[in-house]
Amino acid sequence: MNDRELPLLYDLLNTKLHQWLSGFGVSPEQMAWVGLIAGLTLVLLAMALLSKLLNWIFTLLLHRLAVTTVSELDDNLVKHRMLRFVARIIPLMLAYNLVPAVLSDFPKWVPVGQGLFNIFSLSWLPASCAPSCTLPGTR
């Protein structure tokens, strides 16, 4: 028995997805590439839906809080839609943990994929967390 820990959602993104694709007649030679494309599509779709859902929930909660308080901080957060940027961080963390499962058919690509993901998230995260901290005239 192998004691190695499997990546997050490995069973869904690898085993079940390959079974589902073989039901559509995908040949074993094409399974790795089609599985990679389908896995990436599923992860991106899940990220987008989760981001929208979290944005809606956070905005609803903050709006209810803003109505009941006298403080202007929560009113400004609602006005500038700050929580939509915060709602993008959670799907980003989930997607980072799904990179090894999506690239399970290409194990040599996992460090490269995580490195590219780190570069993307490090360049995107500061801009999403503080959108009002841009230079004048750059918007």
Summarize the biggest pleated sheet.
none
**What proportion strand?**
under 5%
Which residues sit in consecutive blocks of at least 5 with pLDDT less than 50? none
Based on helices, strands and strand pairing, what is the structural class?
A: mainly alpha
Helix-strand sequence: HHHHHH
Total E-strand runs: 0
Description:
By secondary structure, this protein is mainly alpha-helical. The protein has six helices and no strands.
Attribute tags:
139 residues; mainly alpha; 72% helix
Write a short abstract of this structure.
This protein has 139 residues and is mainly α. The protein is built from six helices and no strands.
Topology:
Elements: H1 10-23, H2 28-68, H3 73-79, H4 83-86, H5 89-102, H6 110-129
